Amino acid sequence: MLKEKGLSKIGQEMAEYILSETQRLNELITTLLECARPRPPLFNLQDLHFILEHTVDLLQTQADAKHIRIAKRFNAGQAELFCDRDHMIQVFLNLIMNAIQHVQPGGYIELGTRRLTDTLEVLVQDNGVGITDTHKAKIFEPFFTKRQDGIGLGLTVVQQSVLAHHGQIYVTDSDYGGACFHVVLPIKPQG
Fold first, then answer.
1. Residue 115 domain flag
2. pTM summary value
C-alpha cells in the first residue's frame, strides 16, 4: 500500500499504523514462543567480557540517544566459561535495555564482573528509580511489568536462560540508587 502512487494521507497513516502494529505483534509472538519453548543452550567456551562488550555495542546508540553513560568494571580477570553465546547476549541485551528504559536522560549504567571460586558474576546496575521490595518478589513472573508499553516477559525469558545454564539471577538495590541485577554462572559445564 505504501508503494501505491496517489495514496491519500489517511491511507498512508493507516498503512504505517498497520506496519507498526504488525511489527509489535510479531515481537510479542516471538517473545511468547521463546518463553513457552526456549531453545536448549549449546555450550561452548566463551569469553564473557567479549559477550558483554558486544552487547553494549549493540545498545550504545540507544544509550547515546538518552545521554546515558555505560561504564564497564570488569574485575573478573579471565572470564571464560562454558555457555551459549546467543543466550547470554539475549540475557544481557534484556538487562541493559531495561536499565536504559528506566534510567533518566543523563543517567548511569555500570556492568561489573567478578570471579568467585567456580562461578562468574555479572552485575548490571544503574542509577534509575530502583525496584520496590514488593516488586522484587514478582519481577521474574510472566506478564509482570511496570512499563505501560511492556509485556512482562523479558525478565522471565532471562531467568529461564540463566537457569538453563545452571546459574542464578536475582535483584538488589544498586550502589547508585537504582536496581542491580546479579547473574551468577558456573564456569564449567554442569550436569
1. yes
2. 0.79
